[in-house]
Amino acid sequence: MQKKVINQLLKQVLCLGMVVIVLAPILLTLFASLKTKADMVTTSPLLLPEWSKITFDNFKKVLNNKYLLIGFKNTGIILVISIFFNVMFGTITAFILERFKFRGKSIVISLFFIGMLIPSFVTEIARFQVIQKLHLYNTLGAPIVIYIASDLMQLYIYRQFISGISVALDEAALLDGCSYFGLFTRIIFPLLAPATATVCIIKTINIINDMYIPYLYMPKTKLRTLTTFLMDYANAQQGSWQTLAAGIILIMIPTILIYIFFQKYILAGVAAGAVKE
């Protein structure tokens, strides 16, 4: 009995430790964003300033920067188009691989999984040349094409879901005169709603947080995304840590809200797709 209590206590301590590790940097950044430049020097980074000295001027300064709105707009455009095609291509490809038998199917599946295993930096030179040949360099099309083509995570999720859908539904629909297109659009795709929610949420967080691809393929100032805006803003705010902290908080807000509100869909979607009846 005593051993069980000790094990339970160790688990709780470990969980609390992980929570502290995750939340501490966010809280320190939030505290810094509410301080003046003088308070940054005189107060501990682990503490908020006095209530009367809390200021929101740092947030106002960041919000007045016109490139922040440009970053939101560009990120939104990339996000909507990339997710739309990821969902369309992912569902159609997964449906074909799970429901149809054709020569070379195992080879095609193997190639998809090999593509998932190869680190992206290994193919960076070739990918950069492809983007240039397509005349997409320094356009919003560059990250959109990369996000659609290079990440195959959605294919795995959709295949897991479709494999759990009874083939009897397909047979019944086809016997009633439904075409394969109708089968997919009217039966299979609606049943993939939990998988689609999971894909959309994970892709949204990944795209919003990505800095490498926008920075490499869209160096133009007018093509800044949220992450590249923050990077350039950090270079311009050397020494003004409180303003930079405010910018970081503003950039984090969309990702945090998305994860908080849709966390149950991520967990439910991944769990449901992992079980095959």
Continuous helix count:
14
As a percent range, the share of helical residues equals: over 70%
Largest sheet: none
Note the run of SSEs as H and E: HHHHHHHHHHHHHH
Strand content: under 5%
The fourth-level CATH homologous superfamily of the domain at 73-221 and 253-274 is MetI-like
**CATH class category label of the domain at 73-221 and 253-274:** Mainly Alpha
The CATH architecture of the domain at 73-221 and 253-274 would be Orthogonal Bundle
Structural commentary:
This protein has 277 residues and is mainly alpha-helical. The chain has a domain at 73-221 and 253-274: MetI-like fold (Orthogonal Bundle). It has 14 helices and no strands. Helix 4 (66-99) packs antiparallel against helix 11, helix 8 (153-163) runs antiparallel to helix 11 and helix 8 packs parallel to helix 14 (241-274). The radius of gyration is 24 Å and the shape is globular. It starts with a helix and ends with a helix. 24% of the residues are buried. Mean pLDDT is 84; it is low at 273-277.
For the structure shown, list the relevant keywords.
single chain; 76% helix; disordered C terminus; MetI-like fold; mainly alpha; 277 residues; 0% strand
In short:
By secondary structure, the protein is mainly alpha-helical. The chain has 14 helices and no strands. 76% of the residues lie in helices and 0% in strands.
